[in-house]
Design a protein that fits this description.
Chain lengths: 710, 710
């Protein structure tokens, strides 16, 4: 007897007995504050009760249905947008992003990309104008972000749409010169946007000043017909986030007033004088936000995935590892299953602290940028800060989104066959999340940019320039490179793990730089040398970022107050698991750096397994501390009460009602199956079954006798 | 000027000039024979011209539409099924599997799983009966395979559906005793199947004889209404392969004649005497086929993915690495892009040779099983062969499907933003392929089974029993363990790489076994010890399989005739890249085994980059040699002629016609956007633009002066 209807729920309840930490305290630690936790609960409740966010049929919606639903949500969210402080509203969106990533993006293109772009790029008068036009309130206004082109993605400087100044009329002529210059992937273009922030090459008096931004109206506000010269198309089906109406846009000599160019950083006067910004990068500060949000999202979505996979692993039983036990064994009790999931639980928490740290860096940078007056003597400092935030956010965006994408897939596969059902929530989650790896800076390109920044910093530090916190290991690099793991005790400590990553980071930054120099000395241009050592740059970025993430986690854990609530002790263990697991995963790098010796790896493997078993013992309450409601998780497998099978079955019946008639029996099945009728009713005779059985049995028993003798 | 309509096509044509091998000879090498190549071409042409296989709108079909289309294909394929030799027909299906994985599976459940199951499990009389009932011809017959249950997947022995013998009526009563025992994931159940091969516990006179197979009719053939006692439901939306009508089945005391139990291996007589097979495994030989087909599919689908990513990488240009060049740089010329794709090209070819070898092993095993008479003295040999094929196919199924799934994702991401469009073909391909990792034996479980087999073989070899070819490295294990990489020259050779993997394999099999023994000695049961060392078993299986794949590749390449056609020289280079890349990826294992030294890894990295550049030089003709037609690839990005942008744009317009009216402007958009109207026509005034510009410029120029002085 292995089946009992109530067993899954009883099993999960039992997992919650006696956690080694105070659950409320852990929840607060994971949310930053009691206030944020309570606000999150409120948002989850509001969403669950809001008919616009009804999601029981979410996984069965077609692309077209999803788009309609998503627009209904936009109509609803605007109520909060108009009444809520922007910071609070952003927290609200962060919660919604976990429930419906597609909605988050569709609305985020307007609120995040478009309005941020206008805010950071416009003069104060321009900003006031666009606000007055309805930009913030979505009144007679919905923005989209026209950067990417069909033939140009990451390379913003290479885009080909032109904005040619016509001095006669004081206008710009926006034009798509060829197919490759078609604006592509533009979220909101197909069905929502009234206006677009168009990235185009500024051409004045025949001179090309590079890429600037222009606000262009796309549609008649009363009919939503495109304006003359504007061609818009739907780009259709995507891997995920089908709630977004991505489209393409072609401009055919479309005229906009000169005032529609965003002129905070670069200005064009009435007579066509162009003043360019002291530093091009200042114009792209707005793009940072997206990267930081993706690092934060990597943690949130990682938590969602592990909530589903972790709870199910506690409930699911398969095989009996102990023949005397009454029930089959919980998956979570198998060491191999602990190995699959516990590191991902640790990773989601590691990313959480990284996201917090990165958000903090972004806020600092944004304030500094906003406070910057033209000609400010702090300009150089701000540029340094911007560069550093850019480098860190590039690396974290790349490696956190990759880390979480893999984690979702591992979680999905850990459900066995059921992981292939959409109703688990994990398959759609993978499809929704995957886009993070390529948009707003392809991960590989971003990692290489970080790699380049690391090489520059190394060069600077060799010339005596002291590096900031993130790169402090370069300041005394000789000692860092020489460091070796002294003992298993050191390896088994947060300080030891940090030391290991520092040595490995220093090693691979140096290896990349040395190769870069060698290439230059053997006749390559700097650019060619940088390309040729790109694999080494990539490795340096990867090792550096792994160490960086661990350091944020360690620092945050060590800052926690010493209390008897068990929070610090628990998270210290989780940090240890994360650090050692990453070391085991990337052992090759630590071995190559010399910090670790091959024979020490066996200890690593044993210790990771032990820590997985320890974390497993409190995995369910730790997952509970992430505090995502059943509504947000929207997966029978991740339900709080553990009633997995019944709810999975019921959800499938609700969404695929058994009374629906066969959709193509008469038209397709019958013509095939009943190509002709015939009557056969001679089962026994045709089979000649009993004689055959006798024969087989006689032969078998003889053979068995013969085998026993031999 | 970077855009030219014809540039993509010219670029791709140029890539085909002067390959270092004879293209026709390479095609034959990759297809086994001229005959197979020509048959494949014929099948591709037939499919392309067959309206049932029309696929221009494939990526926009909803689940329900896909299912209808898929059934139309079944109706069409039956024409070939009835007229073609089964071996030839299987080759046909292999080609179709690359064009439409969902169709392949839906039809494969009937033809592969159901009929194979009946063939291998029934007596000759039973087989004749079911053939006569229309099984092979799909006449008044369509089979499905009722193994998996809601609460039991991989654990076939744990399933709970019962088949209780009623001696009074000479029938079995098939019954689903609880929700968890609901047959689940059954492909074809929802809308296609008339009959099901039900796996159920045989209960005779109150005794449970374990899981056997019973053929149960599900539906009335004239109406497709379910028969009394049979409950069928649709399990709805999946990650991919939505063309398959997976369903659930519950039986409520359904009676079938005794003759409907498959009785080749286990027999029940009229009076309820049960004879069990000498070895349970013999009953599951049929499941091997699926695993072997998945290894083969891993190569085919890997080739499809690299065809798309490789051709696009040649055509796509981004940034100018050389400022003097006329056009931007082809992605394929960036070393980092070569690093991303060239190893995957090599991997697809490595898997091809593995698939061929495994198919050969399967054929041998199947013949031996089929030839086996009850009580055959060769029984023990056949069981050994079966075990060995089972172990190899388990490992290859797991690691080849994982390898290709990652490869698809890397290829998808290598398209940058466009990789997220369904029309690239790669996102749907990922979703279709992903199921291979969890069905017919979850990959992790299969890897652990191989790990267990490796430990047993090691134990046997210590006791003096000589191991077969796949495990010959255990026969002189001391020497294998002591081997070290002597030089870069050795490392840079196929023989050297093979030696490295043998040492690493031996090392990790020994490590796993030693830990297993230590656990037993410290008081664990064998079962508990095996669970506790599961991570080490997993690692042993992974390292062993990597080496196994490489050895198949090397052996196949070395068997190629020495000719002037360049095929052998080219494939030797590709094998070298595959071997060294895998070494670099898994350097930690080679370092831990002692075979490789940390300082040798730098050479590895340099050499892999060099080989990537070499393979890149003939990547496009090598991809051409895979010979998949544009119809089968069905991606503008993978087109033979390279006309990517035009075709991508046109495909999107065909599938999202621009003349479609806005689907929800009146109902949703207008009410939001036009919440109230208002008139603003004071752009210039409100912005106060020109005064602001003057002010900014004055400040900026002062600041710049100040900055210059400082």
């Amino acid at each position: 007897m292995t089946w009992k209807d109530s067993l899954p729920m009883e099993t999960l309840a039992k997992e919650r007995e006696n956690p080694p930490f105070d659950l409320d305290a852990m929840k607060i630690a994971n949310h930053g504050s009691q206030e944020r936790l309570e606000f999150k609960r409120r948002v989850m409740l509001e969403l669950e009760r809001n008919k616009a966010f009804y999601n029981d049929d979410f996984y069965d919606l077609t692309k077209d249905e999803l788009r309609v639903r998503t627009f209904i949500k936009i109509g609803s969210i605007v109520n909060w947008l108009l009444t809520e402080n922007l910071d609070v509203f952003r927290q609200r969106l962060e919660v919604i992003s976990v429930a419906d990533p597609g909605f988050w993006t569709r609305f985020g293109v307007h609120l995040g990309l478009f309005t941020n772009c206008v805010r950071s790029g416009s003069t104060s008068g321009q900003f006031a104008y666009w606000v007055n036009q309805g930009m913030l309130a979505c009144k007679e206004f919905y923005g989209c972000f026209g950067m990417t082109e069909l033939a140009h993605g990451s390379n913003v400087q290479g885009i080909e749409t032109t904005a040619t100044f016509d001095e006669n009329t004081d206008e710009f002529i926006i034009h798509t010169p060829n197919l490759g210059a078609t604006k592509w992937w533009i979220g909101g273009a197909a069905h929502s946007a009234t206006h677009c922030a168009v990235f185009a090459r500024l051409i004045v008096h025949g001179k090309d000043y590079g890429t600037k931004t222009f606000v262009v109206q796309l549609r008649n506000l009363d009919t939503y017909e495109t304006l003359p010269g504007v061609t818009i198309g739907d780009i259709g089906k995507k891997m995920g986030r089908d709630g977004i109406d991505n489209g393409y846009i072609q401009f055919t000599y479309v005229r906009v007033p000169r005032a529609h160019m965003l002129m905070r950083h670069c200005q064009v006067t009435r007579d066509g004088q162009v003043t360019e910004p002291p530093m091009q990068q200042l114009a792209y500060g707005a793009l940072l936000t997206g990267r930081v949000m993706m690092a934060v999202d990597s943690s949130n979505i990682g938590k969602k995935a592990i909530t589903i996979a972790g709870r199910y692993a506690a409930v699911r039983r398969q095989f009996k590892s102990d023949p005397n036990s009454k029930y089959e064994t919980q998956l979570l009790d198998y060491p191999i299953h602990q190995r699959r999931l516990m590191p991902l639980l640790a990773q989601a928490i590691a990313f959480q602290y990284c996201g917090q740290q990165l958000t903090h860096m972004l806020e600092q940078t944004t304030s500094a940028l906003d406070a910057l007056e033209p000609g400010d003597p702090k300009l150089q400092d701000v540029i340094e800060l911007l560069k550093s935030t850019h480098a860190s956010s590039s690396g974290l965006k790349a490696f956190c989104t990759w880390g979480t994408l893999s984690a979702i897939e591992v979680c999905r596969q850990s459900l066995g066959g059921h992981g292939y059902s959409s109703y688990t929530g994990l398959a759609p989650l993978y499809n929704d999340f995957a886009v993070h790896c390529t948009w707003e800076g392809d991960n590989t390109i971003l990692a290489l940019q970080l790699g380049r920044a690391l090489m520059s910093a190394y060069e600077e530090s060799r010339q005596g320039k002291k590096q900031g916190e993130a790169l402090a290991y370069l300041n005394d690099i000789e000692a860092t490179l020489r460091a070796r793991c002294s003992s298993e005790q050191e390896l088994n400590s947060l300080a030891g793990i940090e030391a290991g990553w520092l040595t490995a980071s220093a090693h691979f930054v140096k290896v990349a730089y040395d190769e870069f120099q060698r290439l230059i000395k053997t006749g390559n241009s700097r650019e060619a040398a940088a390309e040729k050592c790109s694999q080494l740059r990539f490795v340096a970025a990867s090792v550096h970022t792994t160490g960086f993430i661990f350091r944020q986690f360690r620092a945050a854990v060590e800052e926690l107050p010493e209390k008897s609530d068990g929070v610090k002790a628990t998270l210290t263990k989780v940090a240890l698991l994360y650090g050692l697991w990453q070391m085991e995963e990337k052992a090759g790098f630590l071995l190559r750096s010399g910090w670790l010796k091959p024979e020490q790896c066996d200890f690593l493997t044993v210790r990771v397994s032990e820590l997985c078993a320890e974390v497993r013992s409190f995995a369910i309450p730790l997952i509970d501390s992430f505090e995502y409601s059943d509504f947000v998780i929207n997966s029978p497998f991740g339900r709080y009460d553990g009633n997995v099978y019944r709810e999975y079955f019921d959800m499938i019946r609700r969404n695929n009602p058994p009374l629906k008639p066969h959709p193509y029996f008469e038209t397709l099945v019958k013509p095939l199956i009943s190509r002709k009728t015939r009557e056969v009713d001679n089962v026994g005779e045709l089979m000649n079954l009993d004689e055959e059985i006798e024969e087989i049995q006689a032969e078998t028993s003889e053979a068995l006798k013969a085998a026993k003798k031999a």
